[in-house]
Amino acid sequence: MTNELLKSEMVNMNDETFRQKFFTTEGRINRMTYLKRNLFLFFMIFATLFAIEFFGFIADLSPAGINIICNIAMILFLVPSFCLDVKRLHDLGKDSTLAKIFLGFSIFSAAYNWHLPIAIGLTPIEIVISIASLGFAFYLLFARGEDNANQYGTAQ
Description:
Number of strands: 0
Strand content: under 5%
Order of helices and strands: HHHHHH
Oligomer: single chain
């Protein structure tokens, strides 16, 4: 079923281009579209990180070097994730402020991890950011969008 969801999302939904789906903040997306596109991003992130780890191991890079490259890749994937969050917030009738706050949290968290040794484990700030981010994700995934048109467009 997941394969069918991803295929239907990526093939030809609403005749949107890849750029319009993942790299613009214009318009609105409903809960199911948000879920499908985030699943696609999840699998792309997983594949990218796997490739970085695999080729980093083959190239005999240090674990710290591989970690930095993985963090850079994760930051790059924040762009389409941010765009999806903004579109989902638009469906809820809200502006992009919450998405900007959580984008800042994500960038801070990635940058924070670059400077800490792996042995330290989770710090209280990382726990708080993780819980808040999880709550935000559940809000975007389960909150019902506005049925009528709003300032960001019409409902899908």
